[in-house]
Design a protein that fits this description.
The chain contains seven helices and five strands, in the order βααββαααβαβα. The chain is an alpha/beta fold. The longest helix is centred in the middle third of the chain and has 21 residues.
């Protein structure tokens, strides 16, 4: 089964029926009356022995059978969403009903927004904290590997993944936050940890991404698969301490880390026949330091939504996924 457009439905066929119209004519017989009295005859009038002929013709019946539609009703598009907390919409309320509480899966994440608007069947197995290994292995008790949600009947797959591999995002934010106070205008995190936060993207995360995408393609061979990149967490320079607890000089390093993850994500997608959904251009100016225009919540936001896309961010991801699907 080939992937159909989101919400694509076949128009119902009109059933044609034949209309048979029978016209019946009525025969009227008129009798003329005479005013003259006729002479009486003693001759008995001869009786006719001829019997009026009866019609043996049976009115024709229509043999035309109304046409029946042979078209099978259109099946619903089967859509599966995989991935980590960015894909799950962690921090955006309300949570998906009956979902595992530790997955922090929102009922308003981009996948749910798309499924609702396009009227398609969604299976969402995205889960906060997931990395590429959780595609194949259970992430929590009662939470099977995400690939189990896929099969040959799957039409569309979306995912965001890679940011938790090697604790890429969480480790960088934590380490840089711990040293920020030592030199707010300098680059203490970059000076202390250098390239060690960025190098694993190329050497370890990139191969893991390729394998994860290959596994998705194997489990859902007929599906259109879309890998979404991560929106910017920080602006190119300076930052916004204390909303984002990163020293001004370390902001470019965090930005470079994100750029590397998106670059290798895009490369892996291209090599594995997966469509890439670029979030870098559209999210410029909507990072955690953008005030009312932000799509990412800052570190000062209480709860699990800190340093994650908010409701506007999920709306933006949904729009880009929809756009990429049609390209």
């Amino acid at each position: 089964m080939n992937a159909r457009r989101f919400g694509g439905r076949r128009p119902p066929r009109l059933i044609r029926s034949g209309l048979v119209v029978l016209a019946v004519g009525a025969l009227l017989a008129g009798c003329a009356q005479s005013t003259e009295t006729p002479a009486r005859s003693t001759e008995t009038p001869a009786r006719s022995t001829e019997t009026p002929a009866r019609s043996t013709e049976t009115p024709a019946r229509s043999t035309e059978t109304p046409a029946r539609s042979t078209e099978t009703p259109a099946q619903s598009t089967k859509y599966v969403n995989l991935g980590d907390s960015f894909s799950a919409g962690t921090g955006v309320r309300p949570l998906e009903a009956d979902s595992p509480i530790y997955c922090l899966r929102s009922s308003k994440n981009f996948a749910h927004l798309l499924a609702e608007r396009e009227a398609v069947e969604l299976t969402d197995v995205s889960c906060a904290g997931a990395d590429t290994e959780d595609f194949r292995e259970p992430q929590h008790q009662g939470v099977p590997g995400q690939l189990e949600a896929l099969d040959a009947d799957t039409d569309v797959v979306t995912l965001m993944i890679g940011g938790n591999d090697k604790e890429t995002y969480s480790r960088a934010i934590r380490l840089c936050g711990e040293v920020a106070d030592t030199d707010l205008t300098g680059s203490p995190c970059t000076d202390r940890y250098g390239r060690s936060l960025i190098e694993p993207v190329a050497t370890e995360i990139y191969p893991a991404l390729r394998q994860a995408l290959r596994d998705v393609r194997d489990r859902a061979p007929n599906a259109k698969v879309l890998l979404a990149g991560y929106p910017w967490l920080l602006p190119p320079t300076t930052g916004c301490y204390p909303e984002m607890r990163i020293a001004a000089g370390d902001v470019p390093m965090i930005r470079e880390l994100q750029a590397a993850l998106n670059t290798y994500g895009s490369r892996a997608a291209g090599e594995e026949g997966v469509r890439w959904v670029d979030m870098s251009e559209v999210s410029e100016g909507h990072d955690a330091c953008a005030g009312d225009q932000r799509w990412i919540e800052p570190m000062t936001t209480p709860g699990p939504g800190a340093v994650h896309p908010n409701d506007r961010g999920q709306e933006a991801i949904a729009a880009q996924v929809r756009k990429a699907f049609d390209e």
